[in-house]
Every structure is written in C-alpha cells, then in structure tokens.
Amino acid sequence: MTTEQTFIAIKPDGVQRGLVGPIISRFENRGFKLAAIKLVSPSQEHLEKHYADLSDKPFFKGLITYMRSGPVCAMVWEGRDAVKTGRTILGATNPLASAPGTIRGDFAIDVGRNVCHGSDSVENAKKEIDLWFKPEEVQSWKQNAFDWIYEKA
C-alpha cells in the first residue's frame, strides 16, 4: 500500500477560536496518522514563499497580514490519498459552498477566515512540508491501529 503526506495548517482564526483539537480529531477519526505538528508565528518572508502562487492576486497583501496576525498550527498528516481526502475533510475554499460535516462547512463563513489551509497536490504537499518542517521534525512511525484502518494488499 502506498501512502502520501499532506500539509495542513490551522490558520490564526482557527487557533484563536480554539479549533485545534476538533480539527485534529477530524483527521485522527478518519484514520490519518499525525507525522508532525508545531505552533508557529511565521515571518512575512516565509508566508510570501508559501503563498507565492497567489502573489499577483489583489488579496495577497491582506492574506499575508492576516496569516501573521496570530499563531498557525502547522501539521503533516499521512495516509492513503492524504492530499485529496484532506481537502475533502476541509471542504470547499469558500465555506458557504462547503458541505455540513466538513471543517469549513461547520466552522467558517467567510473565505478570508476559512480556518485551514490544505495542500492541493502531492507535489505542493512536498514543497509545503519542506518549507514548514525540517526533515528531522517529521516522524516516521507505525500506528497500532494501522491494520484496523487498512486492508492488507
């Protein structure tokens, strides 16, 4: 079985609202394995690298200011189809288009306060993990529940 990793960040609004625990629970309950976690206050330069693909958008400056407004909970989650499924757990970028039961559908209203960031591709997940974590900060371990989550091939 092949697994992949995804980068999930709980944005300042999610941290300030005390949603770190409920968000972690959503990923754990689904069966994903937490490989790394830290609470950080990223620099402007760090955030500009992270959101470089949005640098030409009119909301870019406001996004960077907002993301510097409080701590961010950066995480690496691992499992089968972690990127695609992680985005499904988060819901649509616009919370009003997110289904109930998703993180954004349950906890957010405005796009600019949509609680979480999730990698949108396996390639971007790798880049984002490398940007936010040193290699030694990402743990490799076997979940005791692994055989209860995944069928043997």
From TrEMBL:
Residues 3-140 form the Nucleoside diphosphate kinase-like domain. Pfam families: NDK (PF00334). SMART domains: NDK. Keywords: ATP-binding, Kinase, Nucleotide-binding, Transferase. It catalyses: a 2'-deoxyribonucleoside 5'-diphosphate + ATP = a 2'-deoxyribonucleoside 5'-triphosphate + ADP. Its EC number is 2.7.4.6. GO terms for biological process: CTP biosynthetic process; GTP biosynthetic process; UTP biosynthetic process. It is an enzyme of class 2 (transferase). The keyword tRNA-binding does not apply. GO terms for molecular function: ATP binding; nucleoside diphosphate kinase activity. InterPro entries: NDK-like_dom, NDK-like_dom_sf, Nucleoside_diP_kinase, Nucleoside_diP_kinase_AS. Its cofactor is Mg(2+). ATP binds at residues 11, 59, 87, 93, 104, 114. It comes from the Eukaryota. The active site is at residue 117. Coiled coil: none annotated. Belongs to the NDK family. PANTHER family: NUCLEOSIDE DIPHOSPHATE KINASE. This is Nucleoside diphosphate kinase. It comes from Aplosporella prunicola CBS 121167. The lineage of its organism: Eukaryota, Fungi, Dikarya, Ascomycota, Pezizomycotina.
